[in-house]
Amino acid sequence: MTRQPGAFSLALSIVAISLSGCASAGRLGEYDFRDRALAVVMVSSPRPEVFTGSVPEIVGDEESQTWQQALLKAGSEIVRGSEAAKLQQRMDEVAEEVDVTSILSDRMLERASRILRMRPVEDTRDADFELEVRLDRYGINANDWDAQAYFFVKAEILLLDAADGSLVWKTKVEESEPVNQGTEGLNTAAANVVTAATFATLSNEAIERAFTGLAEFCADRATRKLQQAVDKTRK
């Protein structure tokens, strides 16, 4: 993927999928998961994108698309400069030091096993079921230097019966959320709105904590779809 140092653009996939309703229950109602073993498998785990100037695909209904397209047009004037370039380089360097996908995987395993009342295991050889995670894109973006920064994720999640590889349940996740002052490591440095410029003032340690927040955001959004699907089977 070609990167554009110093370029910033808003992640526009704002809750478009979640607004379409609860996740399908698939075949979840056919299984008794209690005390069975669950493992998480990261099939694809690209590096997180950080202020790359790359905009996720616009999705959703016609009204949301019109609104998103307006934002895209407003964000077309990309801020460039030495400070922006330095920030992207530093964010990339910190991303190399933080194993975001491992944090994401661990949190997904903990949350998914609790939702399904299963036993979490790390080795797939010990698992009765596998939660397969196919990350397409995820990261932190903003539409310019002084605009709100967002976490975003685009992924597909599948629950598989490990015995024969059959599909039990699947969902797509395509969402974003403003980075806020409650994100660990940002609460003391952030103004009312957490921007790209805010990140430029943070220590590397605080940026590492922001990447941890990104991983938790991705895991929580994915497992929220699972919770919705399980709730559907219990009605």
Task: Explain the overall architecture.
The protein has helices at 62-74, 82-97, 100-116, 196-200, 204-233; strands at 37-44, 49-50, 119-120, 129-142, 149-161, 167-178. It is of the alpha/beta class and 235 residues long. Helix 2 packs across helix 5 (204-233) and helix 3 (100-116) runs parallel beside helix 5.
Q: How large a portion of the residues is in β-strands, by DSSP E?
A: 15-25%
Shape: elongated
Termini gap: 45 Å
What profile does the largest beta sheet have?
6 strands, mixed
**What is the total tally of β strands?**
6
Overall average pLDDT: 77
Helix content: 25-40%
Total helical elements: 5
| Order of helix and strand elements from N to C terminus | EEHHHEEEEHH
The class by helix and strand makeup works out as: alpha/beta
Rg of Cα set? 19 Å
Residue windows where pLDDT falls under 50 for at least 5 positions: 1-21, 54-61, 67-80
Blueprint of the fold:
Layout: E1 37-44, E2 49-50, H1 62-74, H2 82-97, H3 100-116, E3 119-120, E4 129-142, E5 149-161, E6 167-178, H4 196-200, H5 204-233
Parallel strand pairs: 1-3, 1-4, 2-4
Antiparallel strand pairs: 4-5, 5-6
Helix pairs in contact: 2-5, 3-5
